[in-house]
Amino acid sequence: MILNSRALALLLALSISVITSAFLSLLPSISTTALIVSFALSFSSSYILVRLVLEFIFFKEITSIYEALDKIRSEELSPILSRSRNAVNPLRLINKGIESYARTKQREIAELKEMEAFRREFIADVSHELKTPIFAAQGFVHTLLDGAVEDKKVRTKFLKKAAKSLDGLDILVQDLLTISQMETGEIKMHPEDFNIEEMIKEVLDQVDGKAEKREIDIELQHLDVPLYVLADYQRIYQVMTNLVTNGIKYSKKGGTVKIFFEQEDEHVTVFVQDKGLGIPEEDIGRIFERFYRVDKSRNKGKGGTGLGLSIVKHILEGHDSKIEVESEEGVGSKFWFKLRLGKVPEYELLNEDDD
User: Fold this and answer.
1) pLDDT tens across 283-326, in order?
2) Taking the C-alpha atoms of 180, 183, 188 and 192 in order, what is their torsion angle to the nearest 10 degrees?
3) Which helix (H) or strand (E) holds 193?
4) Which of the two ends of the chain, N or C, has the fewest CB atoms closer than 10 A to its terminal CB?
5) Are residues 58 and 50 in contact, defined by beta-carbon separation less than 8 angstroms?
6) Nearest partner of 253 among 215, 295, 291, 288, judged by Cα
């Protein structure tokens, strides 16, 4: 800043002294010595005066503005100011700094508005999802209290329905807690080596009733050699349960859900493919959001909390992996993710050699 004010003062003083000397030279009686003296006096006095004005009035105020900007600028603004500290035009520098600061704050405001809109939508979704099972259970209980409890058949039927609604409510709350704990890092992954084919067979035993009810055939690729992965058993069990359940839920009656693997280097990719409703292209980027429904009309009666794919996403991120999807509306969907290969136990290797 001092260098800039000195250079500007020299330039202005030189201009003033040259102009002054030029006018004096027009006088017929003035000598060369007088012109030199007047030039020197004009230059020195102009330099001192201009320097004082610039340094203690103009540049002092600019320095104050710099200090104010230094206090409020963002990290993005800092490089801009530091690169331009020695600029000849300090007003242009300040203009750039203020403009950059304004753009940064505008982006922050836009992000805050987006977060606020997401918060409102999330609260509305949670309220709706909680209201459904609560109102259902409340209705059954009040019906019983109004006299239906005396009828044994009605009582048993309504109590079962109320219990089912409360079970759904408990699942929803547990899913919400799981997502919240994963986002805050409260839930840690506990990796271990396990046979993923055998684990998936356990998942299929669990969902077998749902598949039979909708006449869905589930095909699991048979592996000639044991395939072990290094991951959190319970969490990957959740992932596969959600993906296979969705495959069954959204497949056409009598359809097929396929589960197969691809092994490369130190990773294995697990695929879950169905021939179901498929997902519209404009919705694919949002299906892993909490409570997002592709089409509420087609989800009616399907059940679930709307949190399954969001949980899948968070679990796989905890494994330094991610869930991928390809889908075509009316044709079906394919989900896949990668896991690190694990160590095959010695007894598995011995059994393989015996075979």
Assistant:
1) 888 888 777 766 544 444 455 556 888 889 999 999 999 999 99
2) 100
3) strand 192-195
4) C
5) no
6) 215
Could you report the per-residue pLDDT of 218-231, keeping only the tens digit for each? 999 998 888 999 99
Task: Give the model confidence (pLDDT) of 130-142 as tens digits.
Answer: 777 788 888 888 8
pTM check: above 0.85: no
The closest alpha carbon to 179, from 81, 309, 320, belongs to 309
- State the residue for tokens 């079906």: 332
The answer to whether residues 259 and 221 touch, using CB atoms and an 8 Å cutoff, is yes
Residue of 319, 338, 343, 341 whose CA lies nearest to 188 = 319
| Encoded tokens for 190 | 């506990």
Contact 262, 229 (CB under 8 A): no
Distances, alpha carbon 106 to alpha carbons 95, 103, 110, in Å:
16, 5, 6
CA distance 72 to 10: 34
Token pair recorded at residue 158: 């309504």
Interaxial angle between packed helices 90-145 and 152-183, expressed in degrees from 0 to 180 and rounded to the nearest 10: 160
Angle at 133 between CA 296 and CA 164, to 5 degrees: 110
Enter the DSSP assignment of 276: B
